[in-house]
What we know:
The structure holds 3 protein chains of 3 kinds. Chain A has helices at about 15-20, 55, and strands at about 1-5, 25-30, 40, 65. Chain A is an alpha+beta fold. Chain A has one domain: Alpha-Beta Plaits, CATH 3.30.70. By secondary structure, chain B is α/β, with parallel strands linked by helices. The longest helix of chain B has 19 residues, at about 180-200. The interface of A and B includes residues 3, 12 and 65 of A.
Amino acid sequence: MAKITVEQERCKGCGICIAFCPKKVIQLSKNLNPKGFFPAELINEKECTGCAICALMCPDVAIEVYRQEREKK
Amino acid sequence: MKKVFERPKSLTDVHFTYCAGCTHGMIHRMVAETIDELKIQDRTIGVSPVGCSVFAYEFFNFDMVAASHGRAPAVATGLKRSLPECIIFTYQGDGDLAAIGTAEIVHAATRGENITVIFVNNAIYGMTGGQMAPTTLIGQKTETTPFGRDARAHGYPIRIAEMLATLEGSSYIVRTSTHNPQNVRKTKLAVKKAFENQLNNKNFNLVEILSTCPSNWGLDSIQSLKWLEENMIPYFPLGEFKNI
Amino acid sequence: MKILMKGNEAIGEGAIRAGCRYFFGYPITPQSELPAYLAEKFPSIGGVFLQAESEISAINMVYGASCAGVRVMTSSSSPGISLKQEGISYLAAAELPCLIVNVMRGGPGLGTIQPSQSDYFQATKGGGHGDYHLIVLAPHSVQEMVDLTYLAFDLADQYRNPAMILADGILGQMMEAVELKEYASEIPHKNWAVGKSQGRKRNIITSIYIDPKVLEQHNLRLQAKYKIIKAHEERAEEWMKEDAEIIIAAYGTVARIAKSVIKKAREKGIKAGLIRPITLWPFPDKYFQDLGKIKRILTVELSSGQMVEDVRLAVNGRIPVEFYGRMGGMVPSIEEILEQIEKINSQIERVKL
């Protein structure tokens, strides 16, 4: 279980996160943001592994990454 | 779910004014994360340059000083000499550091000034609209080299990291890149080391980071990363040039 | 107790006594004794002396240290001060206090190492780009090299503005007895400075205001400050002015010569006196308001005539203002100036009894 959130107002739709996402679960939204860009959005939460490569490469630091904590045995 | 990646505290909430896909923002994040991790936010002073990152003081969330074009290493010298317990870094582009500010960076390095320099090299002047930079590649077209940079007319691109590594006063000189996740991770490690060295009073530390300029290169974000990898790295090889 | 000191060294001693512990400079004649003095004295008192790679770097190191809130200075001579102008404009714009010493030599260009006063315009009217002023103090003795150094640091801090000591090669090189008065002022706390930032909002020091509306407001604030400085800080020495018909207006080295000229003129029955501006900016207009019996003013400078423009503005056409100057490192003799005084005296129309 993992997910990302993209701060829609901050994103400039550069597409770098989409290009580097190993699971191809990010795409550009069909809706313009107030800056006039089509921001990125997570389209398939089930497939997201929370690897954070998108956040690592995001030039606008617009992505936050969440992961399920592993249960301690 | 637990948040595993978030904006560092050492960045303000202000939206970056950089163009879409410009890697300045990644580098800002890595600097800010490093300052958070080293717990030095309340004693770090950044020196912003003239160029695209002229408004860096808006984005970094600690004391900031804006320098005139190219003079950031001299300003940082004045700051560090009077505030030795503070952590002082400059954030400079290739025009600022490698053209107008060449004397300042060379002499800050040779004095072994105990500062950290983040040098962003994207082979072009961004803010003024895409003119030839000292690091513009041979053959590269810019506003002021419309037929491509010709060595006979414009000279050769300057390799700052290699040059500064020859100086006695430099401790850590490294060139990294932002074109893919592996190299971004290496860049982060280098940035962190360049700050840790300052904390350990190790002379002069500089990280040259190859960066993109999609707007003035005339390429999209992804093409720019590829162009960097294919064109800049062969001339500006990555690696540590000095680590003592 | 008085001790014998060279003018350049006296500035150095004055700076140390005023609490300055940071000096950044680049060698140039005829101010070299000042950095040499501080290079020797600073290590034992915890000061930082740094010889920079250029005047440009030196002034930007001053900028950095001033941002940190410490008392800091640089010194140079005319061609070197030209190089510092960019940095000086930034210091003025960011409202950073510091002391800049210009021991003037003859120009333009590389010129000569001999004394001159041809940087008056540069010092008082701007020098760098933009609308700004330095506080400019003009000593005329080795004693004043100390006293005005104290004052320059105080005014710089009080008004958050760079201050300049505008001396010349003669004042820098000559030796005189000086009394090193106790420095009594308190260095103010600078809550705007950068440094350790625990428990306060972050401080930003910049001179960029990209929005013209905001930049105009910043300029209006600077101009309001300059107005306050002008209202409070005009300084000049008046010497034998009371009954004078002819006034010599001169500063620095020339004022010393003028005093000898005035004595000789009085021996010849000519009622001469002196107004010696000590603050060149703000120019001491108020000393030229009550002209009394004064019929003519002769401005004498080591230049082609720079301060004379401010004298004329202050007098505003009420009486004629003449000029005499030497250039290129030449210094006028007492006789030379006396001749001018006699010529002016002969032109004054007097009611014949």
